[in-house]
Amino acid sequence: MRILLLISLVVCLIAGSMTGASAAADEKAIPTAKIGVVDMQTVASQSVPAEAARKQMDDKYGKERQALEKQGEALKKKAEGLKNPKTSEEKKLEFIRAKQDLDQKTRNFVRKVEQDEVRLRQDMVTLVFQAAYEVAHSKGFNFVVDVTAGGVLYADQSMDLTQDVLAEVNKLYEVSKFHKEKDSKKDEKKADDKK
Questions:
Q1: What share of the chain is helix, strand, coil (3-state, %, to 5)?
Q2: Three-class SS of 58-89
C-alpha cells in the first residue's frame, strides 16, 4: 500500500512538473496582448472631418431643406382652412395634390441626403480605421476596441487612445485634403493647357 501511494505521488509530481514546463512554454509562444480603447462616437462627432462633413451637408442641402419645411408649414395652414364644412371640393383636391407633391419632393430630398451621408460615413470610417491603426502601431497596441460598441464595461485610462486617434484623424484629413486640393489644381491646369 505504501509503495502504491509512493508511486502515485511520484507520478503526480512528474505530471505537475511537465504541466508547469508546458505552461511556461505556452507563455513564451503567446505574446501578451496590449489592448487599447477608443470612443468612436467622440472621434466621429468632434473631429475636423466630421465638422467639415456637417458643414458640407448644410451648405449643399440647407436651403432645400428650409424650402421644404416652409412648404410643409404652408400646407398645415391650408389644412386648417379645410376644416370648414363649406370648403369646396376643388380646394380639397388642390390641397391633396400639393401634399402629394410635397411628399414626393421630401422623399427625393431624403434619398439624396442619405446617399451623400453614406458616402461621407464611409470616408469617415476609412479615416478612423487608418488613424486607429497608426496610433495602435506607433504605441505598441495589438488590439483596439470601440468602447461605444457596448462590449467594454471598464478600461484603465492608460488604455484610452481616443484623443490620440482624434488627433491622427485630423492630421490624416488635413493631409488628404491638401492632396485633393493639389490634384484638383493639377486637373484644372491640364484642362487649361488643352484649351
A1: 80, 5, 15
A2: HHHHHHHHHHHHHHHHHHHHHHHHCCCCCCCH
**Per-domain residue ranges of the chain:** 1-30, 31-194
Contact 148, 177 (CB under 8 A): no
3-state SS, residue 195: coil
State how far the Cα of 62 lies from the Cα of 59, in Å rounded to an integer.
6
Q: How many helices (H) and strands (E) does the chain have?
A: 5, 2
**3-state DSSP call for residue 36?**
strand
pTM summary value: 0.63
pLDDT digits (tens, 9 = 90+) for 119-154: 988 888 889 889 999 999 899 888 888 888 777 767
At 66 the pLDDT is: 93
DSSP per-residue letters across 153-190:
S---GGGB-HHHHHHHHHHHHHHHHHHHHHHHHHHHHH
Q: From CA 118, how far away is CA 53, in angstroms rounded?
A: 11
Residue with cell 465638422: 51
CB 34 within 8 Å of CB 140:
yes
Length of the chain: 195
CATH architecture for the domain at 31-194:
2-Layer Sandwich (3.30)
